[in-house]
Amino acid sequence: MTDNGVRANEEHITVGEPEVRICVVGDELIAGVGDAKGLGWVGRVVARTRFPGTAMVFPLAIPGETTTAMSQRWDLESAKRFHPDPESDNRLVIALGRHDLDAGLSVARSRLNLANVLDVAEQRRLPVFVVGPPPGRPEDSDRLAELSGAFADVANRRRVPYVDTFTPLVTHEQWLADLATGVGGYPGQAGYGLMAWLVLHTGWHAWLGLPDDVT
Fold first, then answer.
1. Architecture of 17-208 per CATH?
2. Cα–Cα distance for residue pair 191/95, rounded to 1 Å
3. What share of the chain is helix, strand, coil (3-state, %, to 5)?
4. Backbone dihedral region of 127: left (phi > 0), alpha (psi from -120 to 50 degrees) or beta?
5. I want to staple 61 with a disulfide (CB 3.0 to 4.6 A). Which of 31, 48, 96, 97 is the partner?
6. pLDDT tens, 108-118?
7. Whole-model pTM?
8. Would you list the domain boundaries of the chain?
C-alpha cells in the first residue's frame, strides 16, 4: 500500500516550466516613445516570440542615456531582476542609442564602453544580444554609420550577436516617412515594426535556442 502510494504521488510530480528573464538596457527607444500602441520594438519582438515557458522581459530605459551612463548602471539594475540561481536562464539585451553623438563622445570611448559591458557580462556568464542604433537626423548619418560599425566590430570580436538597424533603415522610405511625421524625431508604429523585424530576423531565435519560425 505504501509502495502504491509513493508511486501515485510520483505520477503527479510535474517538472516546472522553463523560465527566462531578459533585461533590455537602453535609452527611450526601448520604452517605445512615439508609438501610439506603446509597444515599441521590444514589445513587438516579445509578442512574436514563442517562449516554451515563462518569459519575464524587463525594459530598463533611461531617456537620453549615453553608453558611458549605461555601462555604469546595467549590472546593478539587471541583477535586481535576474533569478538568483546562477544556473537560471538570465539574459541581457543591450540596445544602443544615438546619444553618444550629442554628448560628444569619441568613437573610441563608445567602443570601450560597450566592450566593458560585454566583458563583464561574459564574466557573469550572461548571454548578451546587442541591438545597434537606428538612423536619426540626416546630418548625423555619417557619424552614426561610423558608430554603428564600431559597435558591430566590438560585438563580432566577442562573438556576440549584433543587429545593425542603421544600414537597412537609413534610406528606407517607410522609416524616413515615419520619422518625418513623428514627434521629436522618434519612429511610430511602422518604424518600430521595422526595427522588430530586423531583430527577429538577425539571430534572435538562435540566441534564445528557439526554432526560427518567424515569417
1. 3-Layer(aba) Sandwich (3.40)
2. 16
3. 50, 15, 35
4. beta
5. 31
6. 999 999 999 99
7. 0.90
8. 17-208
